[in-house]
Amino acid sequence: MAAGGEEQKTIQFDSTAVSQINNQYGTYKGTLIQHLKDNGEPGKKVYRTPNVTPRNKDETIVQMYSYKSIPPTDGTYVVLQFKESEMYAASKEGRPDVLVLEEPGEFDTEDAEAITTTADRRLFLMKPVLGAVPAADFAVTDFVFASCIASQQNPGDKNKARVITLLKSQRFPARLKREGRAPLESQYFQPVPLEGVSKLSDKHPVQEQEVQLGDRMSSLS
């Protein structure tokens, strides 16, 4: 059990989708991107780019893994991996409120498809935004990404959830802040699939198990 939180949940890998994660609102408009160092090597922070170009497109492409949960929850558990570098977005070990990018070898379970609990630092709950702000201003396909570890296993609770949040200046990396404690438009994102969704059953035909969770990634494709 997380300190001051609830017990971790059991999850099962369900599908993947190659996507870009966009924000469409004013000062924060842009796409999540992995920062590159001066020598061209991948950095460990997530930033926002206002413009995707042929030069930086590869650093904006994310492999999104989605999972079914036991018991089901309102949202979809996901892992975000920047495809070019293969580095994962995660809550930093020892400083869970810090958003970082880390190599697969930094985790006990390197393969995201083998993750079975929300105790993994890479797990986020992708929650749909429903009626939080005037409908004319925000699309129904907006989501927030709440870190399970940073939220002390309470990512569904707005009072405890820490979500990926953009800053006004694109020179500063994204952070994990309390849901609703920053401008709403800085926390709302739209995953935009670039390829079709690949489900577990496409690779390994298995008998359907008795776990149910709305596959929101399929609805976005």
Mean pLDDT, to the nearest integer, reads 86
Number of beta-strand segments: 13
Q: Please compute the radius of gyration using only Cα atoms.
A: 16 Å
CATH topology: Trefoil (Acidic Fibroblast Growth Factor, subunit A)
CATH-defined architecture: Trefoil
Proportion of residues in extended strands: 35-45%
The CATH top-level class label: Mainly Beta
Number of domains: 1
* Largest β sheet strand count, sense and barrel closure: 11 strands, antiparallel
The total of helices stands at 2
Region (Disordered): 199-221
Could you give a short description of this structure?
The protein is mainly beta and 221 residues long. The chain has helices spanning 200-203, 216-220; strands spanning 10-23, 30-36, 42-49, 62-70, 76-82, 87-92, 95-102, 124-128, 143-147, 162-165, 175-178, 190-193, 198-199. Residues 204-221 have low confidence and may be disordered.
Overall description:
With 221 residues, the protein is mainly β. The protein has a single domain, classed as Trefoil (Trefoil (Acidic Fibroblast Growth Factor, subunit A)), CATH 2.80.10. The chain contains 2 helices and 13 strands; from the N terminus they run βββββββββββββαα. It has helices at residues 200-203, 216-220, and strands at 10-23, 30-36, 42-49, 62-70, 76-82, 87-92, 95-102, 124-128, 143-147, 162-165, 175-178, 190-193, 198-199. Strands 1, 2, 3, 4, 5, 6, 7, 8, 9, 12 and 13 form an 11-stranded antiparallel sheet that branches.
